[in-house]
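Table S2 (text version). Query chain:
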Amino acid sequence: MDYKDFMSSITEHIKEYMPKAFQEADVTILTTQKNNSVTLHGLSIMRQEDKIVPKIYLEGFYEQYENGRSLESILGNIAEVHTNSMTDQFNDIGDWFSDYDKVKEKLVLQVVNKDKNASLLETLPHKDLENTDLTVIYKVLLETREYGSATVVVNNDHIGHWGIDGNALYKAALENTERLCPVQITSMYDIMLELGGGENKSQKELSDYVIEPYNQYVLSNNQRTNGATVMLYPDILQQLAKNSGGNLFILPSSIHEVLLMKDDGMLNAAELQAMVVDINRNLVEPEELLSDEVYYYDREEQSLSMATDKDQTKELLERLASQCGSQEIENEWEQEV
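Corresponding structure-token output:
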């Protein structure tokens, strides 16, 4: 069964697995442009009285189907996810969302790649990070659950209605993101230890963390979701660089985290970039990719910039594409308003 037939089977049979209250619901497949211009297909099951419903992306389920999972099991799983994700908490979302004083407490940041989202950024307020290929967009975080986060992406019409300028929007969203998603840093050694069933006994406060030479450290938030935004938290990079007695290389592992390494004079940005590109092509979902560049934090200048050159990166990627061809990686669903 190809992907088109799979989606048709899902829409045709999903109500057989839903509670009685959903038997008259409208079942549709909606296409959504996600981060990095990736298009995903989301299943919507909406009754007449529903104001807000989860959108369940099907790409990940199709991958499970190709790997041998039965269609019946997948249909049951989707029905369970939908039922558990339903809420009447936002039935008055229209009135609530129009009031900026209420919305501003839920504003959060997300760091994305400028070039890969150029068309999308035309419709969204955003703040470019100087001397990088990154920019910040804004979301309203309605709710976080086991199955995903309910969010609304802030667009130009929203801020026009709210009458808010970009600086105030950024300030509120940054403060909220830091409060709702506290910073977390973990050495790669400790992560491997935990994956191997060991116990990480070296948890330390950020103020005590030292980036040791030759080691890698994962910088994210406590939810490990959109954790690359932690780079923007006030004084985080400066404190780590000061503790470590040196400048830092920053490797964009994904939109969810970055890797930190101390510049000991022996590291080469081009060699680090080769590692980033390899990870991006083989381990990172297309819509979770942040960048193929490597960044540098200078503790004296207190500045973040690119350590690699965009033109040289373009040549590198073109050379790799001609050697290996393109590769598609499908991704898991997430819930979205």
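Notes on Table S2: The longest helix spans residues 71-85. Residues 3-85 form one domain.
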